[in-house]
Amino acid sequence: MIVGITSAIQNPAVAEMERDLPATSSQFSLSIALFVLVQGLFPIVWSAISEVKGRKLVYLLSLFLATAGSIVIAVSQDIGLVIGFRCMQAAGSSAFLAIGAATLADIYEPHERGTKMGIYYTAPLLGPSLGPILGGGLTSWLGWRSIFWFCAILCGIPLLAFLVFFKDTFRKERSLTYQDIVRKRLKERAKNAELASRQKSVSTRAIVTAQGETNLEEASSRVSGNESGEIKIMLRDVSPFRPIYLVLRRWNNVTMLFVTSVMMAWQFMITYTIARTLSSKYHYEPWKIGLTSLSYGMGCLFGSVIGGRWSDFVLRRTKAKNGGVSQPEMRLKSTMLGVFVFPAFVAAGGWATQEHAHIAVVVVMLFGGGFFSVYVPAMMYSSILAYIVDANAGRSSSAVATNSVFRGIFAFISTELAVPMQDGLGDGWTYTIWAVIALLSGFLSIWTSIKGAEWRRNAEEREVKEG
């Protein structure tokens, strides 16, 4: 929930922060856009660390950065410090979505992941709806600095909990990144051994190149029994970009990353533009805007839980029809309903606010948009995220981190375009354009459910040939 709350909690306090610091509206717009961008890009760093040093270290480092950044913002007297340490706060909070999904992949088997991720993602997607309520209340009661002291506590408590209670879930035998490094080290060790002793060279190469060897951890432990000692993997052995490059080489990944990124952009656009509409057309105060926006978060929450269970049900049913053989693409068949219903809610919601419809209509449109949304882990996103994890066995954190990069870039663009589109076109046509984009991205999901298995097999065969 930290991810969503930290991104949205500042919004109700902008006016007071502008007067107190002082600062301009453009500076605060920059702080929001940079926060979104950093939160999207930084998971590639966390992913690389987690694939070598495990998940726990990432959780501790990221929570420390988020906590420290919140404290510095709370005592800042200059907008430059606020912008800089909001970026630090974003970098820290960015780890949870990518590494959290990887942790679930560590713990649960594919047939369980849809349900677990549906439950897990209720928190970060409810956060953007709770953030404005908390920010508005704290600002009215204790001033804008109190919201960042609240964020420091919000990040500090789980920091202590992870330090004391969390047992690392990272499985070296499931990480292709880790095993690729071990394979490289074993080949280097074999080469060095050949220079020292021909006999030792033969036995070492036998370990490295033996047919049927599937567990490189076992191989590395056998080699480490010799005089050279144990293989140690360092952070410098990992490039955060190569795993992402391997993820992007698969066309099935690219299509799904585009789908989730479009809907990430939509989420940031809707939460920002609906707040402006409720303020200008409905003349709502900040706390009422937050309460109305909560309907969107509640739609995400219910849709996430129900959608995750529906995703697992469709996977089990399709697997049974396929003679008990499972493929990741089977999960995408559960997205069919969301492909068509979600854009309808988007367009209808835009014209409802354009015509100043009763607030009850707006609330229903927001709830339905959250429930059927493609980005939010509702009927579609639970399935898509689980598919990204299932289709990239051994690279789950890299795949989710790549997803985060795409989403951050798209969200940055949508944040910059939101106000010009809304002011120039009005809510009706702005939301209709987004509905068309969402529909087209939904068709990519259907296309991947049909062709994805073929794309994935071709990519896996190519990677095996390339070694």
From TrEMBL:
The chain crosses the membrane at residues 28-46, 58-77, 83-107, 119-141, 147-166, 254-274, 294-315, 336-353, 359-388, 400-419, 431-450. It is found in: Membrane. One of its GO terms (molecular function) is transmembrane transporter activity. It is a multi-pass membrane protein. The keyword Transmembrane applies. Coiled coil: none annotated. InterPro entries: MFS, MFS_dom, MFS_trans_sf. GO terms for cellular component: plasma membrane. Keywords: Membrane, Transmembrane, Transmembrane helix. Residues 1-453 form the Major facilitator superfamily (MFS) profile domain. PANTHER family: MAJOR FACILITATOR SUPERFAMILY, QUINIDINE RESISTANCE PROTEIN 3. This is MFS general substrate transporter.
